[in-house]
Amino acid sequence: MILKKFYLTFCALLIGTSLLFVPVHAENRTEAEKKETEALLQKGLTVHEIDREVARLAEEDVKLGGQLTDTEKKIAAQEIVVKDAKKRAGKVIRSYYAGERESLWSVLLSVRSLPDLLKTYEYLDIILDHDHRSLTAHQDAYRELGAMKTKLANQRTDLQKTKENYLKQKERILALQSELNRELDASGRSELILALIQELNGRWEQEGLPLFRTYFRSLAGVMDYFPELLTPGGKDSHLTLESGGGKFQMTDHQLNAFLRSKDGKFDDLTFQFKPDGVMAFGTKGDMDVSIKGTYEMEKDGDQPVIAFRVQELVFNGFKLPDTTGKSLEKEFNLRIYPKKLFSFVSVEHITLEDGLLAIKLGLNW
C-alpha cells in the first residue's frame, strides 16, 4: 500500500542518514512508530467517513422534513375532498331512506309507450350512475386519505430514526476526533501523520470510494440477469426441483464465471463463499479492495427478500467504518425478490459453506 510504503521509506531514510549502525532498540522504535502511524491513519479514515455520514444524515433530515410537510399539506387538502364527498354521499343515502328513489321506479312503471320508457330509463340510469359515483368518490377519497396518513406516519418514523442516528454518529465522531487529536499530540509527529491522513482520505474519496461504487453498481445491474439462474432446465440454471420444493446451489467458481460473463468489471474481483459469509477481493492498479458480507432473509414491506448485508469493507489494508457499508447498501439495491421470480416460491433457509451457496425453497400453491 502506497501510504504505508511511503511512511516506511521516510523512516528508513531518516534513520539511515542519522546512524551508520542501527541499534536494536531503534529498530523496535521504528516498528512501534509504524504500528502507531497505521493506527492513526485508520482512525483518521474512520473519522473522515463518519463525518461524511453525518453530512448525509443532515441532508436526509432536511429532505424527509420537506416530504413530511408536503404530505401534511396534501392531507389537509384531501380532508376537504373527503368532507365534500361525504356530504354528497350523505344526500344520496338520505334520498334512498326517504323513498325518493322509489318514486323514480314508479315513474318508470307508469309510462305507456316504448319511446317514453326508453327516455325515462335513460334519465333513471343517469341518476343512479351519479349516485354510484358519489358513493364511490367518498370511498376512494377516504381510502386515499388513509393511505396519506399511513405515509405520514412512516415519514415521521423515518425522520425520527434519521435524527436519532444523526445524534448517535455526531457523538461518535466527536469522541473519535478528540481521541485522534490526543494521540497525534502524544506522537510528536503530528504534522507528518496529518499529511499522511489527508493523503489517504483524499485517495479514498477520489479513487477508493468510486471503485467500490463501481463494483456495487455492477452487482446491482447483474441482478437483472438472476432469473437465468433459476429457470429449471435452462442453460445457466442452478435450480433443481424436489418434492415439495426446490434447491438453488452455486459454487463461488460458477458465480465468478457468471458475473464476468455479464460485466467485465468483475475480472478484477473474485468472490468466495465461506461459512461465515461471502468474501470478495481484488486489485485495481495499486488499489487493494475487499468486501465481506452475508445473505439474510428480511421483509421489504410485506414481501420477503434475500438481502446482502455488508459486514466489512477494506481499502489498501484500512477498514472502513460500518456507516460506509450501510450507505452503499442504501445507494445500491442488492436484494433478491423471490416472489417476483416465482409467485409460488418461498425461501426456507440460506446456507453458506466453503465454496458453496445453497438456498432451500418451498412451494406455496
From TrEMBL:
<protein>
    <recommendedName>
        <fullName>SbsC C-terminal domain-containing protein</fullName>
    </recommendedName>
</protein>
<keyword id="KW-0175">Coiled coil</keyword>
<feature type="signal peptide">
    <location>
        <begin position="1"/>
        <end position="26"/>
    </location>
</feature>
<keyword id="KW-0732">Signal</keyword>
<feature type="coiled-coil region">
    <location>
        <begin position="145"/>
        <end position="179"/>
    </location>
</feature>
